[in-house]
Write a structure and sequence with these properties.
The chain is an alpha+beta fold and 142 residues long. The chain has helices at 16-31, 39-57, 104-114, and strands at 4-12, 65-73, 77-84, 118-123, 129-136. Helix 2 packs antiparallel against helix 3. The longest helix is centred in the middle third of the chain and has 19 residues, at 39-57. It is globular, with a radius of gyration of 15 Å.
């Protein structure tokens, strides 16, 4: 396997694009050797769903599309980033807040930490942001 594998897709900020983002990421990971029954895949599916949903729902129409970037470095670290052009960053809600929504980033943070990974948010040059996660690649290198 190469030292660096990369893939990217840009999709419209539309709710139907969330499943397309998830399918795209899963297809690339399968190409890179992640088996369909790998426990990491469930984590990745949910993280991509949450981040893409945030990019669609919380950009208030100010980001006409979003981009999903995937990077696998040295068969050790999987990076997934979701970029939109809205300047507002995800907000951390207090645990006591009773709402039907707004828990996506808490779920993402928990899943990433449970997988031994990290989450960071970085600004983009156009005033938006990219939410990046990194998790260890679960497939041994032969």
């Amino acid at each position: 396997m190469a030292d660096l594998q990369e893939a990217s897709v840009t999709l419209p900020s539309d709710p139907v694009a969330v499943s397309a983002a998830r399918a795209y990421v899963c297809a690339r990971l399968a190409e890179w050797g992640l088996p369909p029954d790998a426990p990491t895949l469930d984590c990745v599916r949910l993280v991509v769903s949450e981040l893409a949903t945030n990019a669609v729902l919380h950009t208030s129409g100010l980001s006409p599309n979003f981009t999903v970037d995937i990077r696998l470095e040295h068969s050790e670290h999987l990076h997934i980033g979701v970029t939109d052009s809205h300047p507002r960053w995800p907000q951390r809600l207090p645990g006591a807040v009773q709402q039907d929504n707004g828990r996506g980033m808490a779920i993402v943070r928990h899943l990433v930490a449970e997988s031994g990974g990290t989450l960071r948010i970085i600004p983009t040059c156009d005033g938006g942001k990219t939410v990046w996660i990194m998790i260890p690649w679960a497939i041994p290198v032969l």
